[in-house]
Amino acid sequence: MAEIVPDTQHRGLVSALPPTLRDLALLARFDRPIGWWLLFWPGAWGVLLAGGEDRWGLIAWLLLGSIAMRGAGCVYNDIVDADIDRKVARTAARPVASGRIGGKLAWGWLLALCLVGLVVLLQLRWQAQLVALASVAPVAAYPFMKRITWWPQAWLGLVFSWAALVGWVEVRAASGGDWDLPALALLYCGAIAWVVGYDTIYALQDREDDALVGVRSSALRMGRHVRGGVSAFYGLAVGCWAAAFWLVRADWLALLALVPMALHLGWQVLTLDASDGGNALERFRANRFAGLLMALACWVVGNA
């Protein structure tokens, strides 16, 4: 029987599914929506900060794409990482690692989720389609990063922030206006730093197991300086976003829109307990709300 992991957020809904469907849902992490929220928010930021009209329909498509592609990414990650997952207490019961889902079914489920992503891709202009397709290689490489670098979180940042590029390019291509690439680059770099920060917090749950099986992470690399490291990355994120806002709207009042986000990230750092996995999980999940605060800031500045 599929194990409903402790950090699930839809225990009743998932446990009510038939065994095979339950395992497929767990494989795509449908029981843990925090993942697709974190993938989605940078896309919403790109759309809202880029301005333009008719943005809400695009944001809805990006949300659907985030749900599907986050699920596809998790399936692919579990296929590649099955040998490692079996050695880590928190991941040993995953459907592929435990053997409940076979390779053919897992690959078929991956294809089905990618087809949903294709439907979303076809809603975009060709410029945004090219940007979206360029993410395939970094996504495919991500599961191997923990084997070769102490900073797989940085690579995850490249991948999980990609939607910002897609959303921005789609809006600017539709409007025919200035692409304003420096502002986009700063928004993207800030999102990468944000991802490194929150995923380092998430990795705190697995530090002991990762050390035993030889998996590398920023949480292990930072050691006793995790709080300072996360603070530095969050500070870099806010600095990049402030510069992006300034390029879009050169007004000191525009920077005030970032204050709620900065305060929230500061709260995460100040209340983080690196020795408590439950505390780390709560601070990690808090980034769903952080993403909303940033989206509101982008909407304020982009509507100017």
**Helix-residue proportion:** over 70%
The H-level CATH homologous superfamily, spelled out, is UbiA prenyltransferase
Structural class by sheet pairing and helices: mainly alpha
CATH class: Mainly Alpha
CATH architecture: Orthogonal Bundle
Oligomer: single chain
What percent of residues are in strands? under 5%
Topology order in helix (H) and strand (E) letters? HHHHHHHHHHHHHHHHHHH
Number of domains: 1
Task: Walk me through the structure.
The chain is mainly alpha-helical. It has one domain (15-302): UbiA prenyltransferase (Tetracycline Repressor, domain 2), CATH 1.10.357. It is built from 19 helices and no strands. It has helices at 11-15, 19-27, 34-50, 55-80, 82-85, 95-98, 103-121, 126-133, 136-148, 152-160, 162-175, 181-203, 207-213, 218-222, 226-248, 252-255, 259-271, 277-285, 287-302. The longest helix has 26 residues, at 55-80. The protein is globular and about 55 Å long.
How are the secondary structure elements laid out?
Elements: H1 11-15, H2 19-27, H3 34-50, H4 55-80, H5 82-85, H6 95-98, H7 103-121, H8 126-133, H9 136-148, H10 152-160, H11 162-175, H12 181-203, H13 207-213, H14 218-222, H15 226-248, H16 252-255, H17 259-271, H18 277-285, H19 287-302
Helix pairs in contact: 3-4, 3-11, 3-19, 4-7, 4-9, 8-11, 9-10, 10-12, 11-12, 12-15, 12-18, 15-17, 17-19
